[in-house]
Amino acid sequence: MLPILRNFDPLARSTQWNHLGRLLDDLWSGDFPSHKIGNIDVYEDDDKLHIDAEFPGFKREEINITLEDNVLLLEAQRNESKEQKNNNYFVRERTQGKIARAVRLPVAVDEKKVEAVFTDGVLKVTMEKHQKSKAHKIQITE
């Protein structure tokens, strides 16, 4: 007699494989979830470039921003307290230590005209786009 398959779901395995694939993609891309800053948005308007980055649970003084060679480096450092070190955890997913993310900017910006505001766990960085020089006529002398 042949066995009968009950509750066979051909998509169940593919869902598991998709989840594994996403985890491996994150690992190889350098954005592994346990050490990654929250989601970011990068957008522009006529004269400014904007980056909004989530830093859930961090304080303003724990965040550092560096802009060099058109790469914005976002870093945060949280150290665990002595009380936390002595606990016996069943699950521990909150980030401790340092997290960082480098964002290559899609357009050139003026490194001296950058503003950052941190409110409700979201860092908003606004950078003025680098102004292209306008063409002007050059006189040739004899």
Give a quick precis of the structure.
This protein has 142 residues and is an alpha+beta fold.
CATH class of the domain at 34-82 and 95-131: Mainly Beta
- Rg, rounded, reads 24 Å
The shape, in one word, is elongated
Query: Helices and strands: which structural class?
Result: alpha+beta
CATH architecture of the domain at 34-82 and 95-131: Sandwich
| Tally of DSSP helical segments | 2
Trace the largest sheet across and list its strands: 1-2-7-6
Number of strands: 7
Strand content: 35-45%
Helix content: 10-25%
Would you tell me which CATH topology of the domain at 34-82 and 95-131 applies? Immunoglobulin-like
Task: State the order of secondary-structure elements, H for helix, E for strand.
Answer: HEEEEHEEE
- Characterize the biggest β-sheet: 4 strands, antiparallel
Catalogue the unreliable spans: 30-34
Q: Separation of termini?
A: 104 Å
Q: What is the average per-residue confidence, as pLDDT, rounded to a whole number?
A: 79
